[in-house]
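User: What would this chain look like folded?
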Amino acid sequence: MLLTRADLPAGFSTFNSGASPTNNSGSCNGVDLDLSALTESAEVYGAGLQNDDSGADYVPSVYVFISAKQAAQAQALYTARVAWKCSLQLAHDRLRGLPATVTGQKLQLVAKTMSGVSVRARQAVLTVRAVLNARSKKFLVLRVEASLIFFRRGRAVAEVWTVEPWTTHTQRTWNDAVSAVVRRLRDSSF
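Assistant: Here's the prediction, encoded as structure tokens.
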């Protein structure tokens, strides 16, 4: 059920995300994304996936709960409004150290059902003005996206959090990742 490099377009490599059932402190200060308090049956973490050109990161994990009700509770809990704080922090972390100013932000809830899989995400997209050359006053406007996506089918909840530059290409990759996880959950026994 984990998203893998084979599910994404060419150009992705793996990295150690540091997440594991024994060492999962969450990715955001003040927002604990560790589902282990609800997990009764299984908790599995995959390798992080990074695009070598754009720097887009995808970090997958899967949780299996004792009941479908518990899985629904987990999905609702971790896509609640507080999750936007985490998405925003991930996006801001990506900009750390760059001569950039955030000029706008868009926060949206993604909530849909695909092939019997409930897909919910809290997504933050920041518009950024980056300095290319202060002397000649050249600037670049770009966008950075971060999402916490939770997929639910039966007792299983798959999570993928993403951080990436937000272009037409990376939007397609985001959709590819969502479709891949939906297929995997649909084809699972959960």
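The helical segments are 68-78, 83-95, 168-187. If you want, I can go into more detail on any region.
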